[in-house]
Amino acid sequence: MEYLLIIPGRLNNLNDYISAERANRYKGAQMKADNEAVVKAAITRSLRGVYIQKKVRMEYLWVEKNQRRDLDNISSFGRKVIQDELVKSRILQNDGWANIIGFSDSFAVDKQDPRIEVRIIEVDE
After folding, report:
1. pTM of the model
2. How many CA atoms are closer than 13 Å to the CA of 19, on its beta-carbon side?
3. What is the pLDDT of residues 56-111, one digit of tens each?
4. How far, in Å, CA of 7 to CA of 117, rounded?
5. How many Cα atoms sit within 13 Å of 81 on the Cβ side?
6. Which of 5, 2, 1, 32 is nearest to 16 (CA)?
7. pLDDT on residue 24
8. C-alpha pair distances (Å), 95 with each of 3, 35, 37, 90, 109
9. Beta-sheet strands, E only, within the chain
């Protein structure tokens, strides 16, 4: 089975998070919580009633409004937030080696419709 999670807009990137953590650890925690709330709303819209028991592979498409942010900064913090929220929402049992066999990142630009598309693909063992 395959599932598609679409998160409208953009999440903060790793540089934003590091700056917030350095300024004040509570500010960093608040930033992560704010990003998780955006992801949770998207999960509620896209994956209501889905509970995945199998291992998965995840394919991320990061659609940015421009090319100003570095690719690794976009994806590293974003993946962490998305996968943590998928576990909190009980879509995935966990986000460790026993549950996610791998992931890939692709990037595109769409000035009018920035978004994150996460394809979650169940894998037969």
Report:
1. 0.91
2. 6
3. 999 999 999 999 999 999 999 999 999 999 999 999 999 999 999 999 999 999 99
4. 6
5. 30
6. 32
7. 87
8. 16, 18, 18, 11, 28
9. 2-8, 55-64, 100-109, 115-123
pLDDT in tens, 42-60: 999 999 999 999 999 999 9
Structural domain span for residue 108: 2-123
Q: Which of 124, 119, 121 is nearest to 46 (CA)?
A: 119
CA-based nearest residue to 100, from 116, 84, 112? 84
Find the angle CA(40)-CA(38)-CA(8) to the nearest 5 degrees: 110
Instruction: Give me 72's structure tokens.
Output: 């690794």
Provide DSSP, 22-53.
HH-HHHHHHHHHHHHHHHHHHHHHH-TT----
Tell me the CATH number at 101.
3.30.1330.70
60 three-class SS = strand
Q: Alpha carbon 72 to chain centroid distance?
A: 13
Q: So what's the pLDDT on residue 124?
A: 85
- How many domains in the chain? 1
